[in-house]
What we know:
Elements: E1 2-3, E2 16-17, E3 40-42, E4 50-52, E5 62-68, E6 71-72, E7 77-78, E8 81-86, E9 91-95, E10 103-104, E11 114-121, E12 124-131, E13 136-139, E14 144-147, E15 153-159, E16 162-167, E17 170-176, E18 193-196, E19 204-210, E20 213-218, E21 221-229, E22 234-240, E23 244-250, E24 253-258
Parallel strand pairs: 1-2
Antiparallel strand pairs: 3-4, 5-8, 6-7, 8-9, 9-10, 11-12, 12-13, 13-14, 15-16, 16-17, 17-18, 19-20, 20-21, 21-22, 23-24
Amino acid sequence: MGISTALNENLLNTNYSPVSYNFTFDKGALRSEMGIEEASTSTLTSGTLRHPLPALPDDKKPSSLHLFRKYDSVNGKRADKLLVRTTDNDFYETAIFETDTFHQVVNLAAYGKDCSACYRYEGKDLFLLSSERGFFYTYDGESVTKIDEAPNMTSMCVHAERIFATVSGEQNKVWFSKEFNPVNWKVSGTDAGFIEFDDDGGKVIKVVRFLNYVFVFRDFGIRCADRFFGIENIRFVVEDLSRYHCVDRRQNNISYRRRT
């Protein structure tokens, strides 16, 4: 498998991709340059002026990064934040579009693999955090709330106003929250629930939202979940994509070719 920039894409077989992103084709000589640079962000008033992100406190080392999309309704502007989990399981935040320092987010912690999502609930922008051995938290930029009823998640995404998640210890299920309520995980016909896989696709690994679907990555294939409404409750249609080859991606679409 690879990329060909010399042949017409209509002449390529399915082992090659006609389109590539974030790749540069150059000479193969190795160079001793760093290959990365210090992170910086633009400001809201200028797309060209940039400012570097601040440094963490001296004794802190980053473990994972998370984006908190937030809107400042009082001042009428975006107020996105970058949250950094450190190796000692603390969280620090800093403003993205303004010059700032890192501030610790008290009572927010994770243990094991973590995951996050952003959700607007009851007029507030929320940062949602969970981990495989921790708790499920909501953070509105001022206070942290722990949701005891939620499962321990290893990945999550927002789709159809619900949170979809893979859960620690549940190797054949994808969980989802109540519609329009990311903190309600009570299983019922009208609230939260789960999709259970009883085939030989292996354990669920990750959920990803793309366009209007939830893609469920598993040990031996990919499932695509969509929803439809029954008379009494919501149901989901799950399609197996393992019988397809992904051959192209362009204009926000994924095209699949059926295996022969």
